[in-house]
Amino acid sequence: MTSHPRDILPHDLEAMASLTPYPQLLREIADKARRTIGFFPAHNPRALEYPWVLARLSGDLRGRRILDVGAGVNPLPFVLADRGARITTIDNHPVTRDPGAREQWNEWGFLDYGKFDPRIASLWAAYEDYDPAEGFDVIYSISVIEHLPAGVRRSWIGNFARQLTSGGMLLLTVDLVPGTNALWNRSEGQEVEPQQMHGEFATLLGELRKAGFEIGFTDIRRAIPDSRVDVGFVMGWKPNSVSASA
Ligand SMILES: C[S@@+](CC[C@H](N)C(=O)[O-])C[C@H]1O[C@@H](n2cnc3c(N)ncnc32)[C@H](O)[C@@H]1O
Question: Could you say which DSSP state residue 92 is in?
């Protein structure tokens, strides 16, 4: 535990360690979080989401190009850089996180990870406008895409399909309205759009399939302690034949 106001409480971390299938990874990520950004988010779903992403990336990551979309302030880029991956983060939040005011940080904001770890490149940009010169082996995004209007979400999915190399992996976690499959429809306290336009977990899966992704795994976790959201998990593949037409 640290004195950071946003650090998860020890009893919550213990409770979540008993709920994730990957308690060792959770502890590794929590240690790294406290040593880098200064806190592991006191938002219990993250204790399921981060280990789930890391567990999908258990192979040899040396030299693999990985993109964290809507990275905010989170420990995974540091953990993945330790495993030898070449990490890029992208976030367009208007607040740039000041290393001198770490006690004010939470998961939201633009953090220049490269200031802490030169192995990580960080871009302050809207992902929908991002047009990288090189493709990525893995793209992941934790609790971001559900906060976007449906039109922007679909343009992100088109970007995922274009920017992943053939055979590349896409990992998404999304907040859901508890007890339902509705995509969470608020962003920093504001409603994003009418729920009917915003869509459901199945809407997202359909959009991914339409863009050419093969869906390898989905899951929904409910009744997460002290959480106002349920969480959906999606692992997709860009097959070798996808022409990225979304
Ligand atoms: C709920 S936070 C999640 C942060 C982080 N992924 C985590 O694990 O906690 C959502 C982040 O997505 C970023 N974001 C929202 N819309 C974006 C966009 N269009 N392009 C890039 N980043 C965006 C926000 O600025 C914010 O930092």
Answer: -
Going from the Cα of 131 to the center of ligand 1, the distance in angstroms, rounded, reads 18
Ligand 1 mean position to 109 CA, how many Å? 7
Quick one: which of 81, 85, 6, 87 has its CA closest to 40?
6
- Of 244, 238, 239, 243, nearest to 159 by C-alpha is 244
DSSP 91: E
Radius of gyration of the chain (CA): 17
Record the tokens describing residue 18, joined without a space: 């008993």
- Characterize the bridge pairing of strands 230-237 and 214-221: antiparallel
Domains and CATH numbers, the chain: 62-237 (3.40.50.150)
SS3 28: helix
In this prediction the pTM is: 0.97
* Nearest ligand 1 atom, CA 187: 1
Both tokens assigned to 23:
């308690």
pLDDT in tens, 96-152: 999 999 999 999 999 999 999 999 999 999 999 999 999 999 999 999 999 999 999
For the record, the structure tokens of 47 come out as 């204790």
The rounded distance, in Å, linking the Cα atoms of 174 and 179 is 14
Report residue 162 CA to chain centroid gap.
19
Residues whose CB falls within 8 Å of the CB of residue 111, separated by 6 or more in sequence, listed in order = 37, 71, 72, 73, 89, 91, 96, 97, 105, 122
